[in-house]
Amino acid sequence: MSLSPSSQILTLGAIFLATLLLPKFLRWRARMVKLNAIPTVGNSGIFSSYISARRFKDHAMEILQEGYEKYPGRAFKVPFPDGWEVIVSGKTMVDEIRKANDQDLSPQEALTKILQTDYTLGRCVREDSYQIDVVRTALTRNLGARFEDLRDEIKDAFADEIPAKESEWMKVPMLYTAMKIISRTSNRYFVGSPLCRDPDYMKLNIEFTVDAFNGAKTLQHYPGFLKPLIRQFLTKVPAGVARAIKHLKSVIEERLRKEEEYGTTDWPGKPNDLISWLLDEANTEDRRKDIIYNIVSRVLVINFAAIHTTSVTFTNSLYYLAANPHIVQPLREEVQACVEKHGWTKAAMGQMRKLDSYMKEVQRLVGVSGLGMSRMAMKDFTFSDGTVVPAGTMVHTVSYALHHDAEVYEDPESLNAFRFSNMRVKEGEGFKHQMVAQDPSYALFGSGGRHMCPGRFFAVNELKALLGHVLVTYDIKFENNRGVPPPHWDGAGCTPNRTALVMFKKRAV
């Protein structure tokens, strides 16, 4: 019996759907078999897991701590709003992530997912990330030569933002003030004066960091084909890029005009700054396409990385100083001794071991995230203990729980300001425990390998210069001798208390 035309259409449609959907279903099922072999923290049911995923936003620290304690040195999985993510701990597994090549575990693809970089920071920045080479080489190498500019801007920025007097205490909203000072200081090094002091340019860089994070959160909820429209109409990213182009376009065009006039990239009077370093690296025909947007995007990306982490670290350091006045004097004495010997130079910063230890210890206590070393599994990845992480799954290491592990750090819940400088006194340990060094038990900049934060040398030297200036210029405290205000957790991300006030008074010198 022949089928009617309508039945034939339905049959063909069913075959088509089966052909299209069956392979996807089989791939999903194979992936879930591998994920189901990894123990879960929270609910693991198809529907109940969404309850745990929602809970992660406000209780990430407790969830990660539970997994760390329940599955030491092993992998566990946690439900996120958009799928399962795998968390690992223990030296062996961390080392295996660190040593994995990018074709197996990709930090770039992880960052693309977390920050939606194609839509927030620019596709060109991901597809040809030469700004990383610039940060690792020219930006880091020129720190000594440009340190006087950094110091000059720090003095002026503090004088403008915290004009405290010797006769009275001044209340300062710390986190936002720190962002303004750090935006201005960093951009003195990146783009020079007077642009670094332009109020709208400063505000842009602070706001772009926030807007990119918020934009990424919005974009994560939409399928790929809608993301260009969502970026344009539901995020503030396009407006931020347009503002940056307005500020930087004429600067870049003038540099390009000079190159054409002199027939070389090494023309007389060429500024030694980030824009020049990026233009030097943009040395191919492809990199010179749409050059204004390309350079502006990379300046924004480097500001994005510099302002957020440095502001968090600086604010946390000030909170703990204000709450622990007994630490101030030994740090102040070290800063004064180093400056007296070397001046305000990069060499002086390198000698400030106690200050380095103090900053590292504060970040051990608080940090910027409960997770570290994020990677995307590009293919099924098998750890040495047999754990299989299926392709397309995010993998992270634990950072906050590691930093508070009594088997790793003695008395881990207490501030021991000189914990790391005391370690450096031992034979052969002079470099090992400083803030920028590779350390498998310290996850702020990554636990080692080629993917450690390339900007950590600039960040740490800038932080020492900032804190050193505070120590020799001001007395600080919390009103009524309050303790450190609790940080703000949003999922695995941690920022200092956003409303806390620190009291400043200028020191009588």
CATH architecture: Orthogonal Bundle
What is the radius of gyration computed over CA atoms, rounded to a whole number of angstroms?
25 Å
CATH class: Mainly Alpha
Query: Overall 3D geometry?
Result: globular
Give the tally of β-strands.
12
Task: Please give the domain count.
Answer: 1
How much of the sequence is in beta strands? 5-15%
Question: Which strand order does the major sheet show?
Answer: 1-2-8-5-3
Instruction: Classify the helix fraction into a percent range.
Output: 55-70%
- What name does the CATH topology carry? Cytochrome p450
Q: Which residue ranges are poorly predicted, with pLDDT under 50 across at least 5 consecutive positions?
A: none
Q: What is the CATH homologous superfamily assignment?
A: Cytochrome P450
Task: Average the pLDDT over all residues and give the rounded result.
Answer: 91
Structural class per helix/strand content? alpha+beta
**Ends distance:** 104 Å
Largest sheet: 5 strands, mixed
Number of discrete helical segments: 19
What do these coordinates show?
Heme binds at residue 453. By secondary structure, this protein is of the alpha+beta class. It has one domain (89-506): Orthogonal Bundle (Cytochrome p450). The protein has helices spanning 5-36, 48-70, 91-99, 107-115, 117-127, 130-141, 143-161, 174-190, 199-219, 227-234, 237-262, 274-281, 291-323, 328-342, 346-351, 353-365, 400-403, 419-423, 456-473, and strands spanning 75-80, 83-88, 105-106, 170-173, 371-377, 381-382, 388-389, 394-398, 474-477, 488-490, 493-495, 501-506. The strands form four sheets. A five-stranded mixed sheet has the order 1-2-8-5-3. Strands 4-12-9 form a three-stranded antiparallel sheet. A hairpin with a 2-residue loop joins β10 (488-490) and β11. α6 (130-141) crosses α12 (274-281), α11 crosses α13 (291-323) and α13 (291-323) packs across α16. The protein is globular, with a radius of gyration of 25 Å. The N and C termini lie far apart (104 Å). The model has no long low-confidence stretch (mean pLDDT 91).
